[in-house]
Amino acid sequence: MVRKAPKKDVTEEGLEVGPPKEWAAGIPGVTRSLLTSYAQMGAGRTLLTLARVNQKDGFDCPGCAWPEGDHRSPAEFCENGAKAVAEEATTRRVTRDFFAAHRIGDLAGHTDYWLGQQGRLTEPMYKPEGADHYEPITWERALGVVAEELRALDDPDEAVFYTSGRTSNEAAFVYQLLVRRFGTNNLPDCSNMCHESSGSALTQTLGIGKGTVSLEDLHRADLVFVVGQNPGTNHPRMLSALERAKRNGARIVAVNPLPEAGLLRFKNPQRPSGLAGRGTPLADRFLQIRLNGDLALFKALSRLLLEAEDAAPGTVVDHAFVQEHTHGYEEWAADTRALDWAEVEEATGLDRGAVEETARDVLAAKSVIVCWAMGLTQHRNSVATIREVVNFLLLRGNVGRPGAGVCPVRGHSNVQGDRTMGIYEKPSAAFLDALGGEFGFEPPRHHGLDTVEAIRALRAGQAKVFFAMGGNFVAATPDTEVTEAALRRARLTVQVSTKLNRSHAVCGERALILPTLGRTERDRDRFVTVEDSMGMVHASRGRLRPASPDLLPEVEIVCGLARELFGDDPYVPWKEFETDYDAIRDRIARVVPGFDDFNARVRAPGGFALPNAPRDERRFPTATGLATFTVNPLEVLRVPEGRLLLQTVRSHDQYNTTIYGMDDRYRGVSNGRRVVFVNPDDLAERGLADGETVDLVSEWPDGERRAERFRVIAYPTARGCCAAYFPETNVLVPLDSVAETSNTPTSKSVVVRLVRPE
Ligand SMILES: Nc1nc2c(c(=O)[nH]1)N[C@H]1C(S)=C(S)[C@@H](COP(=O)(O)OP(=O)(O)OC[C@H]3O[C@@H](n4cnc5c(=O)[nH]c(N)nc54)[C@H](O)[C@@H]3O)O[C@H]1N2
Ligand SMILES: Nc1nc2c(c(=O)[nH]1)N[C@H]1C(S)=C(S)[C@@H](COP(=O)(O)OP(=O)(O)OC[C@H]3O[C@@H](n4cnc5c(=O)[nH]c(N)nc54)[C@H](O)[C@@H]3O)O[C@H]1N2
Ligand SMILES: [Mo]
């Protein structure tokens, strides 16, 4: 069987390709963002809105989870943050007339870009069974439909409640409360596709599923690794932090198959000197690694450190730390000493000299931080790879002291906070005890479904109601055709959304669109809170007039549904929560560790830091109370003859499934997205040339999958690897191709062949 992506946007006539850029975030960055904003918002609204991004009395940028420093500049946003704001603050509107004019089937035929460009959703819409149009519905009736379908289920586990990572702490807390009060832990979230591998590896080895560094640590590190991450596009404000670290004397090592613009040179738009010239060189060393080579790299670095220790005992390994705070060292060291260099070179594609020089950087550094994102988390052996990063840091005591530690760089602006609030299909017993104790009911104890398992359950007809708090489930998940068919089987799909997307077009028998406020918008006089990638909690207050008078904030949608579902609930004061976010925060303070005195502390400018045992006390709350060295076998991912390893990445003009525009400026692409970046030598070997059109075909035990008509771009990526954008390539990743332990789809290692279209 061959699965194909739907034949939309297959011809891209205006597509142009130029040379990739070597630097990021200078003048074009700033002017581009203002142009996008003008087009969507108009000039006055643009200035008013952008002036409030990430200010202490403003709203948290919905762009990414990178923290704000203590000394904020008046323009604490970046090009892509501005695009995220413009996308939400747009003056374009999707009205009931729009839905009357477009059949649902027709909407599914449009591109993600077109769908997003239609503007903000304005009122609740309902697709009754058998209908092919959405029609207006009142809020009361809409929530009634959801409650009716939930009550009709035989078992609460037949419902699935997804969350994307923009939901505030307050909304997330009441949402998971509703779900557990209803009786299930089916709370998959975007994390399952994102940093789940980081969470799994870090919880096991360090006892906390989050990073262990603050922004201050990054500024004062001696050596910073940026691995599997493209900050120039996805976390542009991180570049300022890296620049600052460099000014303080840090060296930066970039590890990536692609020479990403932001990693090489940086022009800081917030400093006068940043507006001219070639910018600051950022990475001191660029290791152009093969996809999935990182486990081998970190093992090799550790082995070189052990050799240096053997040559001069007591000078390299932090024995005091290893003895006092860790276990498993001996076994790990023996395994690491036995590493086979030939395998390292095969896996990484790096020559031994480059790895040895990097090890010398490490030896010269007193404090080391490793930052990473999706390049490490979306492979079959991602959890093992991240555990190797931890081993490498533990060896020299680079955890739990200033300037050192692990730094998984989160994606969605509140994805970390949502997890802290209990959006998790595998909640700990301690969390459930606290929740049940506070509200006086017994939450379900058995684990729920994660993202991939939820799709399987929908496919099998075992899950019948699908509720999404934000996001774009159908487009963000793998195996597009399988997933779409699974969602279409649902009795009811419900999307709480700000903007139109594919998940509204590919829906269940009955479907609801519940439009909600975004971060930028006024929520009466209330504020919400978020947690950034480094565990800082702070307030976010929108100021813009809501896109429509018929929008409800997420908290009110959840509480409204709970009141429909539970009537006069003896356990939870939903009515009070609906209006009073302070009341929600008081409960959070009693249930979630670290939030004591939440209401008072979050009102302090800049908010507060959550406790972090490894960072604050060098304490590791693992099963043994010690940080853990783990043995992770090196299995070289060998790609069969004639095939390439494909990674699926973001362009500079997209936010996950939201397509801002059709350009990828730093990589030299304009007016199109169906492109595949391939090393020129790999092209020559296959008799292919830059500019040709190919289909991407992945091969799996259950058949082939094909994404059609991509323009080949000869590009300086690592040999044997190629790259293309998602969501277009999600059709190539089977549902069952997931990372061990974390169950994250393997979106960064897909074996493909490039074939000329028939
Ligand atoms: N503007 C914008 N900002 C965003 C997002 C967005 O879509 N747009 N998305 C947000 C979200 S949810 C997230 S999770 C983050 C994502 O942030 P990133 O992780 O930066 O996003 P990707 O585009 O997936 O880029 C992956 C990077 O890892 C590299 N890479 C891939 N595989 C490997 C590997 O095996 N080894 C190594 N060493 N490198 C590898 C790729 O070449 C690429 O540079 O960004 C967040 N911020
Ligand atoms: N092949 C491949 N697939 C991937 C990835 C990859 O690298 N490669 N990355 C994965 C990652 S890291 C992630 S995080 C997921 C992302 O998966 P999701 O989080 O599900 O997807 P998004 O595209 O971020 O969701 C966009 C939608 O969110 C809604 N929205 C925006 N703001 C708000 C808000 O404030 N409230 C509400 N209720 N709705 C809002 C809008 O309607 C918008 O259309 O995708 C994953 N999929
Ligand atoms: Mo993400």
From TrEMBL:
Q: Could you say which cofactors this protein requires? A: [4Fe-4S] cluster; Mo-bis(molybdopterin guanine dinucleotide)
Q: Which Pfam families match?
A: Molybdopterin, Molydop_binding
Q: Which residues form the Molybdopterin oxidoreductase domain?
A: 120-521
> What family, per the record?
Belongs to the prokaryotic molybdopterin-containing oxidoreductase family.
| NCBIfam families named in the record | Fdhalpha-like
Q: Which GO terms describe its cellular component?
A: membrane
Q: What is this protein called?
A: Molybdopterin-dependent oxidoreductase alpha subunit
Keyword Iron-sulfur set for record: yes
